[in-house]
Amino acid sequence: xxxxxxxxxxxxxxxxxxxxxxxxxxxxxxxxxxxxxxxxxxxxxxxxxxxxxxxxxxxxxxxxxxxxxxxxxxxxxxxxxxxxxxxxxxxxxxxxxxxxxxxxxxxxxxxxxxxxxxxxxxxxxxxxxxxxxxxxxxxxxxxxxxxxxxxxxxxxxxxxxxxxxxxxxxxxxxxxxxxxxxxxxxxxxxxxxxxxxxxxxxxxxxxxxxxxxxxxxxxxxxxxxxxxxxxxxxxxxxxxxxxxxxxxxxxxxxxxxxxxxxxxxxxxxxxxxxxxxxxxxxxxxxxxxxxxxxxxxxxxxxxxxxxxxxxxxxxxxxxxxxxxxxxxxxxxxxxxxxxxxxxxxxxxxxxxxxxxxxxxxxxxxxxxxxxxxxxxxxxxxxxxxxxxxxxxxxxxxxxxxxxxxxxxxxxxxxxxxxxxxxxxxxxxxxxxxxxxxxxxxxxxxxxxxx
Length: 450
Description:
By secondary structure, this protein is α+β, with helices and mostly antiparallel strands. The protein has 21 helices and eight strands.
């Protein structure tokens, strides 16, 4: 209620300011990038609070009306014309060189700040400005696409968004069937791991006693989940996604639950790319679940491996024999997983290959290839288990040949595991995963088949 009242108040102030602005201007604002740049300069020149808020709203509204070429021209102008005040910066540098003091260092810091940062701050004062700036950065990221000419602008926008979306401002809310429909609709739309087919499917994921969903929200975007996680409460660690999402599954009485399974984590705002909330979300949800259900003693993910098959197809240095490569050709059959003989042969090749993918394979820059692995290992999880045929959905078969993995969050080891990965690049893994890498898993499989 308080947020709604404050938002309405700001909107009223802004609208009155826009009326005054138009009366005093006497001309229509240009509907192109040049006109928008003029308005931005006027906004930075400093006016009253009401007119400044109104002008910020005007800038954001006019930006929305620009086509792709106009938006790029606007971004280029912000890079070119809204950098630091060079004369002021030069003066501050000379003062620092002549007599370096804390005061001069502070002056140098503020003089070096690009004008566009203050512009972005003033745009954020407009009603709904935060959400519009997040959407604007999504446009910016789409236009960069590997090019560096807009990188300076992105650094400034990202810097400010990182401050405004600091963990201290985020609010954790449980999503259940009583959550407003407009938010539930966004959960359906934003789900990025396991598609939610309809409202009944959504209800099966958030309404039963053994299911949970949590999301982070920001006070300036109260109806927009920033990131959300879906959780299944189970007795043991699962190895496949289908039983968790089954239409006719039996609900587990809460007193029997011992394991919390994080089976889907979805970021929702492209404009907040690079600003990580996931580690905070998992850790806070763990605390919420422990308070609510003290008997829970295992916290684990059931995670996809979205880049595995792409790596298998493109990497020329895979640890494979000629015989293994012949076996991999069986993946060309779209229904390969329906043949017990084929699945047994492929398992003997793909499980050790998956272990190599996680434990040994790296990008040219030395990073783990898999983004999901980087996320969970960076949070202090342990690679616990590789699950053969864990996801036989069309997406799972296409991206990972059905392979899924469990990352275990053992609370006493999180900090140690994080340090090992962050400082030394070490992938903390269970002995079962390491045995696959050594080939022991395949030898055992051959013995079973013989």
